[in-house]
Amino acid sequence: PKSPTNKKVSNSRRDSIYDYKSEAAKKVELIAKNRDERRQRQADEKAQKDLIMHLEQNNPYWEFSQMIRDFRNGIDFRPLREHDPVVENQITVCVRKRPLNDKEDRRKEVDVITVNTKNQLIVHEPKHKVDLTKYLENQNFRFDYVFDDSCSNDIVYKFTAKPLVKTIFEGGMATCFAYGQTGSGKTHTMGGEFRGKQQNFRNGIYGLVAVDVFKLLNHQKYAQKNYMVSASFFEIYGKLVFDLLAKKQRLRVLEDGKQQVQVVGLTEKIVSKVEDVIDLIQKGSMERTSGQTSANSNSSRSHAVFQIILRKSGSKHVDGKFSLIDLAGNERGADTNKSNRQTRIEGADINKSLLALKECIRALGRKGAHLPFRGSKLTQVLRDSFIGEKSRTCMIALISPGNFSVDHSLNTLRYADRVKELIATDSPED
Ligand code: ADP
Ligand code: MG
């Protein structure tokens, strides 16, 4: 008689035969799999070797690039966002990093600047040990704000010059400086974005300030003050001053007995709408670059000063002034041992003016500090902007991201750091 137990046995026997076959099949499969994996591994290793060879031939910085990528993968990013709070400082110092440009891309340069938070950045300096192994020297910096390469002029403006516009309506002086190496983005930031050789003067800091000046002029809070707006635009080239609104006419700077500094004969055009200001910016910018042999030969060696002035109608007294300065390339300050005498003198002048500027800004933050404004033509003509408790200033330090520029970028960051010493921390919230 069939019992349920018997059935079970026969079933299990069938299973075990089946298992036996499958064990053999599995072994064969495993051998095949191991062989495939080994081949794949060898192929991968070869591909990796080929890739490394290819990279070494095509990109000498690939290892640094890899190290920077690893670094970035290991940290949290909390960049500045448009609606982050704007802090009201007497002195604001910030940094803007531009994207790598075509020229840097063609040279296969590596982006050595990491902007990790709204106010900090890291410079990855490529270095070699004595045995030639490569390593990165990472340095942290902290400023009031750090703008990464995705920020537009509008965002930069919002956190830098915009909060200073009301200052000039309240009896104060305002200044905004663009500092950095030639090609780092000073003119792009101050004058407007370039599209090829065309510049959009509407989205530079000069133009954006003009828009807000006219907005406040008509604001009920200030309308009864009857302010009249005018603008001037000049260039400081060594010890010489040229009027950019009068065919680069040379101007003299005089200081009277009361230490009042005057640029004699400087053109000051009355403006009644934004459009008038844009026309002046365009005119002056063209004048600045006219007659240049290459894109940045002369303008990189001069400081351009654009000013918007407020006066009561019919009065000579200046009630408020906003000076916007596109500084000479700071690398020119290092041209002090060039064989060409002219270049050497220019370099020394630029160096002197940038050092004097730094000291004047630092003095602004310390009541009663000595103001070394006679140290250069630049600080001399800006003297009245460095005095008075209501004066405010903003420095935008511009940096190029490529590894070829790392020394210049470090110089720029150290300078900006000295203008306003903030302590870099590891905590992104500080
Ligand atoms: P500088 O005045 O400091 O010598 P420029 O403002 O002339 O430098 O900039 C050099 C080049 O880099 C220009 O072609 C400019 O359009 C480009 N550039 C600068 N900053 C930026 C940016 N933030 N985004 C895109 N391009 C930029
Ligand atoms: Mg420029």
TrEMBL record:
Keyword Calcium: no
GO biological process: chromosome segregation; microtubule depolymerization; microtubule-based movement
Similarity field: Belongs to the TRAFAC class myosin-kinesin ATPase superfamily. Kinesin family. KIN-13 subfamily.
Domain Kinesin motor: 90-422
The entry's keywords: ATP-binding, Chromosome partition, Cytoplasm, Cytoskeleton, Microtubule, Motor protein, Nucleotide-binding, Signal
This protein's GO CC annotations: kinetochore microtubule; spindle pole
Residues reported to bind ATP: 180-187
Tagged with keyword Cytoplasm: yes
Protein's cellular compartments: Cytoplasm, Cytoskeleton, Spindle pole
Name of the coding gene: 109544568
Major place of residence: cytoplasm
Descriptive protein name: Kinesin-like protein
Range covered out of full length: 84 to 513 of 622
Species this protein is from: Dendroctonus ponderosae
